[in-house]
Amino acid sequence: MTAYEHAPGPATLAPLRRSDIPRCVEIEHILFPGDDPWSAVAFRAELNSGAYYLGAYDGDGALLGYGGLAILGKRGDYETEVHTIGVVPQWQGYGIGGALLSALLAKADELDAPVFLEVRTDNDAAIALYEKNGFVRVGVREGYYQPSGADAYTMHRPSVSESDGSDGRRAR
User: The domain that contains 51 carries what CATH number?
Assistant: First the structure.
């Protein structure tokens, strides 16, 4: 889909491949060692559910990161949830996480669906990214992440039709 010029090399977004699941699990263990990283079974279940998953790939096709959006409800009454975004540490800070989020949000906008997510209350970089993209904090889930017991903010971004834009587009 898109190349990211500021990264150490070119990166593109494309649908996440089932063959990437073992690498997703490796990345999970790197990024979330104290909080029950997702298993291969969890990733397979997400892909089997019809959720919208993208991978970020380098020029050789190696997986650098991933993002997933669950689509809930029925046509005309959808809600979506960002279930995960992860980028390998050496590629963080180059806009790949933001690009994954933007692509997930574009899918939600295509469905005219509000978006929800949970984020650790101490993950300042992720919170800033989400707020920059129109999310607001709507609650706290105490002890959400296990086994660490870390708290999470629940955040919400309205659908296109719920947003403040008078022409039906999201106000920024």
Answer: 3.40.630.30
Q: What type of residue sits at position 55?
A: G
Q: pTM value? A: 0.88
3 state SS of 111: coil
Beta bridge partners of 14: 55
CB 65 within 8 A of CB 100: yes
Which domain, by its residues, includes 65?
Answer: 11-115
Could you tell me if residue 138 is inside a domain?
Answer: no
> Cβ contacts of residue 111 below 8 Å, gap of 6+?
71, 78, 80
Only one residue has tokens 């060692």, namely: 33
Answer left, alpha or beta for residue 168, where phi above 0 means left and psi between -120 and 50 means alpha: left
Q: What percent of the chain has pLDDT over 90?
A: 77
